[in-house]
Amino acid sequence: MEKHLFLAGHTACYGCGEALGARLVVDAAGPNIITTDATGCLEVFSSRWPQSAWAVPFIHSLFENSAAVASGVEAALKALGRQGEAKVIAQGGDGGTADIGLQCLSGMFERGHDILYVCYDNEAYMNTGVQRSGLTPYDSDTRTSPFGKVSWGNRYLKKDMPAIAAAHGVPYIATASVAYPKDVQAKVKKALSITGPKYIQVHVPCPLGWKSDPALTIKVAKLAVETGLYPIFEMENGVVTKVRKIPRPAKPVGEYLKLQGRFAHLFKKGGGEGEVKKIQQIADENIKKYGLLSEAAEKVAVEAEKE
Amino acid sequence: MKVILGGLAQPATSLANNTGTWRNYIPVFLQKTCTGCTMCAIVCPEGCVYSVEKRKFTFDAKYCKGCGMCAAECPVDDIEMVMEEK
Asked: Which residue in the set B15, B41, B69 is minimally distant from A9, CB to CB?
């Protein structure tokens, strides 16, 4: 087998986007790293005691303190005068980042530690049986936001984590998707070349929680980007410097939603068209805000082939 | 077995897990129209797809969970998923 730093034998569900995302991140970062992780799927399936899927140092402490543990690791390296020897990568799921770990993350940003924080965004608490998190999208059906007679699922919008990070003056912020593996790896490499706190949010489909076909993990992730629901961009010193353009015209959000059971009620229950329209509006706003549409459709197709 | 406070695991020990037993469908690498784009190796969540030659890929049956991502992403449909008989 090829040499990876995140190894086979981990117990993630089949078709897991997070397992793929984690492997892409550590492989891009190389062996000289120290990683920490918040409680969540990643920690559970990669470090089932007494085994570990990591070929690099990996620490899991609590749900909320991935960023704080990483801060300690970085401070210790500094105190020992060994900061050049290893880069520190803190990891977390969307719940461990945007809800439970938010204050530790904020502290890490505030103190300006030289750490790359990677958030694997699978849009709910999957490990405990799919409960909604701050990054669960609008109208998604989860255990704590079920659809029913009066409910359409999750009623809140996704937290704008990149903007929260930007408000801390973080020098490098990026969003990425496992649908574009080389883009994920390029962003990790770029982030590690910058001193100070960095934040990367990787969109990772979860076939279990999204009720999608495991074989279509990449396709679903790609559609999230191509509909405009998950804008892929880089933000340096508070300014958006690079945006992943999507083919013109953008795909309707229905194409993305229909592949997932968590949105199935929008197409079964009467009046669902109005909700789909609202989601389309979210996508349209993203397209406008980040200028996602390409100048010419052909140009993007050529670029996509190169990847 | 000595239990350490907090739990300590040696690196790269998950390789002992035989996750291939979870599989219902098994990929068949036809190795006919392969262009060597490496997409199957990149997208495998287990990282168990690898190349034996430039345009010849195969997988490690010990770990493959049979998710079918390699077959779904192959741009030239050179991978097939078939029901595995055990």
From this structure: B15
Nearest one of A210, A221, A206, A207 to A264, comparing CA atoms: A210
pLDDT mean over B15-44: 94
B38 vs A contacts (CB less than 8 Å): none
Q: Sketch out chain A's domains with CATH numbers.
A: 17-306 (3.40.50.970)
Residue of A nearest to B3 (CA): A50
d(CA A276, CA A281): 9
Determine, for residues A52 and B63 on separate chains, whether the beta-carbon distance falls below 8 Å.
no
Length of chain B: 86
Q: Which residues of chain A carry a pLDDT beneath 50?
A: none
Please give, one letter per residue, the 3-state secondary structure of B10-26.
CCCCHHHCCHHHHCCEE
Domains in chain B (CATH in brackets) are 28-83 (3.30.70.20)
d(CA A67, CA A61): 10
Axis crossing angle, helix A102-111 with helix A66-79, rounded to the nearest 10 = 30
pLDDT digits (tens, 9 = 90+) for A112-163: 999 999 999 999 999 999 999 999 999 999 999 999 999 999 999 999 999 9
- Mean residue pLDDT of chain A comes to 93
B72 contacts A48? CB cut-off 8 A: no
Listing DSSP states for A192-232 in one string gives: HTS-S-EEEEEE---HHHHT--GGGHHHHHHHHHHTTSS--
Enter the tokens of residue B30.
Answer: 């036809």
CA distances from B72 to A92, A142, A219, B23 (A): 28, 27, 8, 16
